[in-house]
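Standup notes, protein team

Yesterday: finished cleaning the Halomonas lysinitropha set.
Today: GlsB/YeaQ/YmgE family stress response membrane protein structure.
Blockers: none.

Input for GlsB/YeaQ/YmgE family stress response membrane protein:
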Amino acid sequence: MGVLAWILFGLIAGVLAKLVMPGKDPGGIIVTILIGIGGAFVGGWLGSMFGMGTMGDFSLGSFITAIVGALVLLALYRMIRKA
């Protein structure tokens, strides 16, 4: 269930990251959602390493971790694409 939870969190986090960081992204909304999924996995992995929850639970902390991970990956993606 953990992987499915983070994919769902990632889908939502990708959309929210796009709303928080508006602008033209290379690849459009689909790439942004995929980055959100990746960010959710990275955020969930780092969060579980630092004791901020597990990757299998549905909690507010896990959701915030997924959103932060998506925002970080989206920002990194934009910086790399501009260079």
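Follow-up from PR in the comments: The radius of gyration is 12 Å.
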